[in-house]
Design brief:
Strand content: 15-25%
Helix content: 25-40%
CATH topology of the largest domain: UDP-N-acetylmuramoyl-L-alanine:D-glutamate ligase
CATH class of the largest domain: Alpha Beta
Strand order of the largest sheet: 6-7-5-8-9-10
Radius of gyration: 23 Å
Number of domains: 3
Structural class: alpha/beta
Largest sheet: 6 strands, parallel
CATH superfamily of the largest domain: Mur-like, catalytic domain
Amino acid sequence: MSKNLNIFLKKKILIYGLGKSGLSAFKFLMNKNNFFLFNYFKINKKNFFIKKKIISYGKILKTNFDVIILSPGIDIKECKLSKLLKKNYSKIYSDLDVFYTFFKNDCITITGTNGKSTTCQLLYEVLINQKFDARLVGNIGNPVLSVKKIRKKTIFIIEASSYQLEYSKIFRSKYSVILNLSPDHIERHGTLNKYVKAKFKLLKNQLRGQLAFVKKDDLLISKELKISKVKSKIIRVNTNNNIFYKKFNNDYLLTETNKENLVFILEILKNFKIKSKILFKTIQNFRGLKYRQQIIFKKKFLTIINDSKSTSFSSSIGVLKVHSNIHWLLGGIYKKGDKFNLSKTYFKNIKAYIYGKNRKFFNKELKGKIKNENFYNLNSALKKVFMIIKKKKHIKQTILFSPSAASFDSFKNFEERGYYFNKLVKKELNEI
């Protein structure tokens, strides 16, 4: 155990936000501290013990807490406890910090703007197939404090978002990875610089002898490295050296983003004893994650891709480069600071079908670049696409659902959006 263990023992602790990470922190620490819970919405839990620990806004203002554990979804600037949190910022920690104080296990922590989940998943599958005791946690779905039966040799693969890292103070990882950086979550962080700084906490907290993997030719990463004091060994990963994917008959590896993800994975795995046969087989059989550049239908003349996870132009561009005759469905709530920077070489190959709340923004970004048409919702846009495809059955075509936007105008999250798209596709295919 770490010398910082006392930070989270026998303390008066407030947990703000009772989603997955908040509840896992509470369950992990509940026998060790005096707890107070607060949620930004009414908790719908039957557990009486949890309800009993939830306190009122008024009581919070009268209580002096030793520690505040903040869920990643809480924005200090906008939340109900904004004033209190700003005043007590030095007391705020994340679930990653709690994890670090209790466990000395090796961690591979991956962040970046695009490709985090896919990189984590494929890395995890390689290690598992090589019989490592690996656990996949973090922003990908399972909180770090929810893991059971941890051994000394257990390796944690952690997907870390800028939201998680923003509140982290003491967490450090033996292997830290920044895949790439482009403008994202500006509505939360306020500026691009603050977003980059949040990501770089992962590197700045490292010690000498630890390893930091970063994309070699990423302008934002290179700029921040020049001014940040990083003690760990920096490994600049040349993602242009991505010809390894040609050894595989795997359509999922065709996109620029996934080629780059693969280069990072191979670089990280140099630090582990992996049999080449197992590595090859795992990569060959990898089919990706749901709603992340996922090929949901493929026949001779038609490919359909569900990339609902895409919430920015930068995450869509990689897919737009590798397919032919693309019917691109996009729309939702645009990301502040987002810009469409696809080369003119590809413009004639794409037609955009724009739907959702911020149609005007997408029209403006694509004007003079890509032919586009507006629709009220995703359903009507997809119907139009299938009408065109039916008329051109013998021409190779691609339907790409890559919204380049957040889903909250019409859906709870990108998973719900992706599921809905699959339902619409199934219906339309039955009618062909």
